[in-house]
Specification:
The protein is α+β, with helices and mostly antiparallel strands and 98 residues long. The protein is built from four helices and three strands. The chain has helices spanning 5-10, 18-27, 43-55, 80-93; strands at 32-35, 58-60, 74-77. The chain has a three-stranded antiparallel sheet with strand order 1-3-2, with helices on both faces. Helix 2 (18-27) packs parallel to helix 3. The chain is globular.
Length: 98
């Protein structure tokens, strides 16, 4: 996604510590956090996900599905609009058959 002009144009990509980045979304310091891969049993996400959910963030799997159901990955967004924009950009990067 870092090579997608739409992503770079709308979001200022930044790679940081997972725990800190997810907490920043909950605190309103970042619009979103996106990662791929398997999160199940990962201590790096557990508290951050709970914090974001408590703060009212949108938290889903990489394709918008409930966490830990299907493809790995995580999308945490401050609001529904940001979440939808990210899912569209992710969809542009994914093969049609996922």
């Amino acid at each position: 996604m870092l090579a997608d002009e739409g992503f770079v144009e709308r979001f200022r990509p930044r790679v940081v510590s997972t725990t800190l980045a997810v907490a920043w979304v909950a605190a309103g310091r970042r619009a979103a956090y996106v990662t791929d891969g398997h999160l199940q049993d990962s201590v790096h996400f557990a508290s951050g996900i709970a914090l974001c959910q408590a703060a009212g963030c949108v938290v889903t799997g990489i394709h918008g599905q409930p966490l830990h159901t299907g493809a790995g990955g995580l999308v945490v967004a401050a609001d529904q609009e940001t979440h939808a924009a990210l899912l569209e950009l992710i969809g542009n990067q994914s093969p049609p058959d996922r």
